[in-house]
Amino acid sequence: MSDEMDDFPELDALMRAEKKHDWMSEPRFKRMFDEIEDGLQGVLGKGRYEWVDRRVFDQVFDRSTLLAVHKLMQKGKIETIDYPIARGKEAHVFHATTNHGPVAVKIFHTTNAVFKGLAKYIDGDPRFSGLSRRHRELVNIWVRKELRNLKRMRKHGLRVPEPIDSLKNVLVMEYIGDDRGASPRLKDITIDKPYEVFEDLLEFVAINWQTCELVHADFSEYNILWLDGEPWIIDVGQSVTRQHPSSEEFLIRDVTRLVDWINRQGHSVDLAESLARVLDDPVPSLPSLSGGD
Ligand SMILES: Nc1ncnc2c1ncn2[C@@H]1O[C@H](COP(=O)(O)OP(=O)(O)O)[C@@H](O)[C@H]1O
Ligand SMILES: [Mg+2]
Fold it and tell me: Which of 84, 153, 227, 292 has the fewest CB atoms within 10 Å, i.e. is most exposed?
């Protein structure tokens, strides 16, 4: 259990005790904030909070998040957080920099009603039973779940970002993109040979099911990035193991979305046949990628 419980208990007490915004002047947070301010220049902007108003900054970088970012900076996992790549309802994703190059930092919002609907992906997964359902902890578990799912997929050679570290609601992973920016989503581009990509993606779903014993559970052209002619699957926080009572339902939904996508590209692929391939076709065993375990 201890690897699941890397919380800061004193922090929760502080959060309850303090009035909103007063915390930044509290000496230990002031010191911490001074220390990480340089690393946050990019998102603070020249005129501070330029990219977004103060309210949204506070929503993303609440004190618990700043503490987590600070710790990841001390560990050398993040040097600077540069600019937002994507701003979603559940998470912001940032381009960040380390000694070794760029990384993506996904910061989950801890004050979001969306998470109330997420319990169904965690209840029933034996790896996460017995933990508190408190909201903040749920978010933290979600992040560790995304990290572990990435590791498991990388172990079996699947093209997902290499997980680097996570702490609380902050996930650090390989950046999918180049100097010009983050890679586009499959949704945003037209590709030359969609059927080949369909085959590749169906194989992903099959290996994920048969070998990793996981279902992505939000497989769609929104969660596939396109880099150097290859699809990269992202956003695996909601992925569940095959033991999950709804795993087959999620699998069918994933395959349905994939088949709908290829059929919108002018093909006429059969759903039942695709599903049968995922379940029964022998899958190749791919060499592990770095970061898998
Ligand atoms: N590793 C990454 N490298 C580059 N861009 C990323 C990465 N992960 C996510 N993104 C970008 O951030 C967006 C949101 O990330 P995602 O994991 O799908 O979170 P959400 O739960 O908000 O959908 C993606 O659509 C993609 O544009
Ligand atoms: Mg997504």
Answer: 227
Residue 116: both structure tokens together: 């109330």
Indicate if 58 belongs to the active site: no
- The residue whose C-alpha atom lies closest to atom 17 belonging to ligand 1 is 235
- Choose which CATH entry (3.30.379.10, 3.40.190.170, 3.30.200.20, 3.30.420.40) describes domain 2-178: 3.30.200.20
For the chain, give the mean pLDDT.
85
CATH architecture classification, 183-280 = Orthogonal Bundle (1.10)
Q: Is 28 left (phi over 0), alpha (psi -120 to 50) or beta?
A: alpha
Domain ranges (residues) in the chain: 2-178, 183-280
**Does pLDDT of 230 surpass 80?**
yes
Q: Which of 4-8, 80-84, 154-158 has the highest mean pLDDT?
A: 154-158
Q: Give bridge partners of residue 86 from the DSSP assignment.
A: 93
**Alpha-carbon gap, residue 5 to 137, rounded angstroms:** 9
The per-residue pLDDT for range 233-248, each reduced to its tens digit, is: 999 999 999 999 999 9
> What's the pTM value of the predicted model, to 2 decimals?
0.86
How many whole angstroms separate alpha carbon 208 and alpha carbon 214? Answer: 5
Q: Say if ligand 1 is within 6 A of residue 163 CB.
A: no
Nearest CA to 219 among 264, 252, 195?
A: 252
Taking the mean position of all CA atoms in its chain, how far away is CA 95? 13
Does ligand 1 have an atom closer than 6 angstroms to the CB of 93? yes
Contacts for 189-192 with beta carbons within 8 Å, 24 or more apart?
189/226, 191/226
Supply the pLDDT for residue 252. 98
DSSP string, 11-28: HHHHHHHSPTTGGGGSHH
